[in-house]
Amino acid sequence: MIQYLIRRILYAVPLLVGVNIITFVLFFVVNSPDDMARMHLGQKRVTTEAIAKWKHERGYDLPMFKNDKVEGLNQITETIFYQKSVGLFLFRFGRADNGEDIGADISQRMWPSLAIAVPSLIVGLLVHISLSLMLVFFRMTYLEFWGVALCVALMSISSLFYIIGGQFLMGKLLQLAPISGYDLGFNSLKFLALPINMGVIAGIGSGVRWYRTLFLEEVEKDYVRTARAKGLSETAVLFTHVLKNAMIPILTGVVVVLPMLFIGSLIIESFFSIPGLGSYTIDAINKQDFAIVRAMVFLGSAVYILGLLLTDISYTLVDPRVRLN
User: Fold this and answer.
1) CA torsion through residues 118, 123, 124, 130, sign
2) Residue 240 DSSP label
3) Domain count across the chain
4) Exposed end of the chain (fewer CB within 10 Å): N or C?
5) Residue 115 and residue 81 share a domain
6) Whole-angstrom Cα distance, residue 99 to residue 221?
């Protein structure tokens, strides 16, 4: 099992390097520093002096990969690639175009994002798996038929409808929770309740259908028939056998949403005015702050790769066959 984990970790290193290189190419080769300067300055007629000044203030006036004006190791270190990309591996994100420390902003904004994403993920998993198991338990009945029809209807509605509808119903009409804002400590609970509920409700349709499909594939297998033949109740079969053997695809599905734990929900944070990483990214895009956008792209990729590693580790816990490889 240790060899299996070492191989997975070694696979992640070149993958992260490749993501870093692709990110650099997209931000500095396809979209040159001159283009970024023109977009950021936002003027119809931008002078050469203004472009040169903007690039110099942000370190974009250096050569891309090799600096022939200096000698020794400085030929590599005094380049855009080294100063803007290599530091990302050590999570040194540098400064935004407005001079603020990106790393400090991320460390401050990650907590509101986690405060929304972690409860939404845990509660969502419990709700989705429980409802899908209930549909499987009552399969071939009217309850399953109408439950699936309701799931299709729920997943056909845009998530914006749930957010705006929840704000109007819970915030405006019933006045049970504020519709925007954020506070620290226990005072944040009243601001987080509505976004978390809306995040869970918005994912019920697709989540329940997905897990129901997984469980239906398992209930027809031979080990389930054997468990029934031994006299186990249908509830015991579903929760002790079917659920356990469906853990691998469940864990795989969780990986997809793992980056949201750190990056945050772009839509929810923006609509509820929560100062998380999602709104941080949206604001950077609107302000055309390429340093922040580049850092968030790399950070999202790193978190996703970390999620893949955690999933591989969790496979060894739920599937004995993986431990033997």
Assistant:
1) positive
2) I
3) 2
4) C
5) no
6) 60
| 131: its two tokens | 């409802």
Encode pLDDT of 100-113 as tens digits.
Answer: 888 888 888 888 88
In angstroms, the CA 123 to CA 158 distance is: 20
CA distances 127 to 2, 43, 205, 314, Å, are 34, 51, 11, 21
In the listed set 60, 90, 120, which residue is the last one of a domain according to the structure?
90
245 and 318 assigned to the same domain: yes
- Inside any domain, residue 124: yes
Kindly give, in sequence order, each residue whose CB lies less than 8 Å from that of residue 264, ignoring residues fewer than 6 positions away.
Answer: 109, 112, 113, 116, 117, 276, 277, 278, 279, 280, 281
Tokens of 22: 């692709």
pLDDT reading at 30 higher than 80? no
Q: pLDDT tens across 234-265, in order?
A: 888 888 788 888 877 787 777 767 666 655 57
Residue 212, domain extent: 111-323
According to DSSP H, which parts of 138-246 are helical?
142-155, 159-166, 189-202, 204-219, 222-229, 234-237, 243-245
Q: Do 266 and 318 have their domain in common?
A: yes
Residue 325 pLDDT greater than 70, yes or no: no
pLDDT in tens, 35-64: 777 777 776 567 777 878 877 877 777 877
Residue 146 has pLDDT above 90, yes or no: yes
